[in-house]
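We both want to read discrete structure tokens more fluently, so let's practise on a single case. Once you have written the record down, we can walk along the chain together.
***
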Amino acid sequence: MRDAEGFAPKTVRTRIGRALRLAPVLLIAALLAVAGAYVVPRGFEAGHLFAIEDDPEAIAERALASSFNSDLANREIEAALAAKDSDLAKSFVDLAADRQVALAPGLVDRVTAAVAEDGAGALSLCACAAMGDSSSIMAAILVSLKQFM
């Protein structure tokens, strides 16, 4: 409906004017709500990090809880086995067992075999040194070096 001059009735003009004045305020409120949803959780996280900054064990526990999973454990164990570092691989297997992280089938057996193989080389070197047989000592050293190459 329009009046004689072609304008909308005064009540309609007032309603539209009020809505136009409220729109920027509502937009700013919505933007602040979105910003708050983004910032507040990070603020709580920062507060928690400040609370544990002097506790290395708590920091490590927090980092492991957020990033240590089955994929990471399998990848690091494979890398350790490729580098012939059976102690590191065994450490990852133990950590996965403590955190109840599932490992790839057969990976634990490969690590156990690698640890046994490394342990056998060191044991044979010690046994030869105890017996005093110089040729056996040299052979044990060569076997041990071959494992690392």
Observations:
- The chain has a mean pLDDT of 80.
- The two ends are 93 Å apart (CA to CA).
- The CA atoms of residues 86 and 114 lie 6 Å apart.
